[in-house]
Design goal:
single chain, alpha/beta, D-Maltodextrin-Binding Protein, domain 2, ten-stranded mixed beta sheet, globular, signal, TAT_signal
Length: 379
């Protein structure tokens, strides 16, 4: 048996089998990514300033390639713009694709000895634990690592959450006003039939988990009723918001957003008082033996810096309080903040829910919204 095949079997079978015991250790330590299976030599926290690391990155060559999970290329424009403004001489490439393609793409690149990215920034939280186990990540603690919420970082620095992403449902506040639904339960009432858009709950793991939370809260009767609402399903978690902004639908399900509504926008992202929604920390890690190590370090330091995190609705840092009267995301019991990482580790459960939603709503249709990027994008 080849080494690559052995690695693959370990990554897809042995590791997931051991994750049952690993999850117990994780829950007791309160630090995701740490247990006797997933430990590595701890690194010291970075002491250099951003400007000092910037100069080191330029001396290295000034290049940086990131594989980022997302629905379309422009979804990372805010990162590109802010990073280029702060570090104008870095040649930054961000390749956006569904996380479920980037993870196997990285595995394939490793197997063929042609790894492209310096940094992985993905929704597939469990993969970072597997990659650490396989020694494919560079343990590194950026400045401010000690301020990151405990369950949003690996204790050895193999990965850290870069930003908080939250999923809920959205409404056209201009069209609906005070009559807009305030809970997911109300969406199955029949009042909104034909006026709901949703990303597929059997395509994106985050949307799968959101629909799972809804189903567990309201029962299979709710799920059956939702199947009768003539929902317009599309690939890409951005599509429900597009349907609202373009006045195609009144309600969208399974999309990211902020409870702080942008000025002039008709789209309101609903933060329920007690009904379920979901949030997680999108993880980022430096690839072991990255071609552009200093630039990768610069990126991680900048991502969790006060200057970047202060601009987010919710921060991964405990020393930055949200504005607009919001609480830290981990203080919302209905955000299912610890539930999503556990769900992502249990691939059998993910698959069972995915196929359940296929029974109710049909198979996923359409090409991936980022397009087909091939084996080595960003090369």
């Amino acid at each position: 048996m080849s080494k690559n095949k052995q690695d693959f079997q370990l990554s897809r079978r042995s590791f997931l089998a051991s994750s049952i015991g690993a999850s117990v250790a994780l829950s007791t330590s309160k630090v995701f990514g740490y247990n006797k299976y997933l430990s590595a030599k701890s690194s010291e926290q970075e002491t250099r300033t951003l400007d000092e690391i910037y100069q080191a990155a330029l001396a290295e060559g000034g290049n940086l390639t990131i594989y980022a999970g997302g629905d379309y290329d422009g979804q990372q424009d805010f990162v590109r713009s802010a990073f280029k403004k702060r570090f104008p001489d870095i040649n930054l490439k961000i390749v956006v694709d569904y996380s479920k393609y980037h993870n196997v793409r990285f595995d394939n690149q490793y197997a063929t000895d042609e790894v492209i990215p310096d940094v992985l920034q993905l929704q597939l939280l469990e993969e970072f634990e597997r990659w650490k186990y396989l020694d494919r990540l560079h343990c590194y603690k950026p400045v401010g690592f000690d301020k990151v919420y405990p369950t949003l970082k690996d204790c050895d620095g193999a990965w850290t959450a870069a930003m908080i992403i939250a999923f809920s449902f959205v409404v056209d506040q201009d069209a609906l006003g005070s009559s807009a639904p305030t809970t997911p339960e109300a969406l199955a009432s029949g009042a909104w039939a034909g006026n709901i858009a949703s990303s597929y709950p059997n395509d994106d793991d985050a949307v799968t988990y959101l629909y799972k939370c809804y189903t567990e809260a309201y029962g299979r009767e709710w799920l059956a009723a939702m199947a009768e609402q003539n929902i317009s399903f599309k690939r890409g978690s951005h599509t429900p918001g597009v349907a609202i902004r373009e006045k195609e639908k009144l309600i969208g399900i399974g999309t990211s957003g902020s409870p702080v509504t942008s000025s002039g926008s008709n789209l309101k992202w609903v933060l329920p008082e007690s009904a379920p929604f979901m949030a997680w920390g999108q993880r980022a890690a430096i690839v072991k033996n990255a071609k552009n190590m200093e630039a990768a370090k610069l990126y991680l330091n900048w991502l969790i810096s006060e200057e970047f995190q202060s601009e987010r609705t919710w921060s991964v840092r405990t020393d930055i309080q949200p504005a607009n009267g919001l609480a830290p995301i981990w203080d919302y019991p209905n955000a299912n903040f610890e539930g999503f990482p556990a769900f992502m580790r249990d691939r059998e459960e993910v698959e069972l829910w995915r196929q359940t939603f296929s029974l109710y709503f049909g198979e996923v249709k359409g090409d991936p919204t980022p397009g087909w990027l091939g084996l080595y994008p960003g090369a």
